[in-house]
Amino acid sequence: MVQNLILIGFMAAGKTSVGRLCAQRLGWTYLDTDQVIEDKLQCSIAHVFRRHGEEFFRRIELEVLEAVLQDSNQVIATGGGIVTQPAARTLLEQSRSMGSRIVWLQARPEVILQRVGRSQKRPLIKAENPMGAILELLAKRECLYRQIADYAIDTSDLAIDQVVESVLSFLNAGEA
After folding, report:
1. Are 92 and 6 in contact (CB under 8 A)?
2. What is the SS3 assignment for 9?
3. pLDDT (0 to 100) of residue 176
4. Region for 54 from its dihedrals, namely left if φ exceeds 0, alpha if ψ lies in -120 to 50, beta otherwise
């Protein structure tokens, strides 16, 4: 039996939208680790990065991941960079060994840029050349996503419902 569904992937790959619908369809709780962090710190992720830096954010992100993984029957959308932390990857692998499934939502770089636009809510791509920042971050993270994922789906050309159906089919196949 699947304990949790954990969504990983780069920003704007669809983790939030897909996660909410999967949770609704499964009758599970939906959690977004970035939202949990914002609620805990009473400020935006962008503010945390500006005021305290990425290292502080990653430390809080790890604490939040550890806390949310204590419960089951959840769909958990993680922050795009969570896989960069070895301790987070260890927590995700431990959760998998207890029945969780990890799904990597992917999107092509140009689709990510189109979805994100010039959002001020995305501190890691607030750059002179956002596409360059996206490509650089993807180059660092893709192998980590690949290592930790049980299943991957490219959301670039799919409607949210199609992605949800694919994810739920994957979960159902694992329970057969």
Report:
1. yes
2. coil
3. 43
4. alpha
- By C-alpha distance, which of 17, 145, 4 is closest to 75? 4
Give the three-class secondary structure for 2. Answer: coil
pTM of the entire predicted model: 0.93
167 CB neighbour count, 10 Å cutoff: 24
Of the chain, the percentage scoring pLDDT greater than 70 comes to 93
Low-confidence residues of the chain: pLDDT under 70: 1, 118-127, 175-176
| 3-class SS letters over 31-86 | EEHHHHHHHHHCCCHHHHHHHHHHHHHHHHHHHHHHHHCCCCCEEEECCCCHHHCH
Angle at the Cα of 113 from the Cα atoms of 154 and 61, rounded to 5 degrees: 75
Right CATH for 4-167 from 3.40.30.10, 3.30.390.50, 3.40.50.300, 1.10.760.10: 3.40.50.300
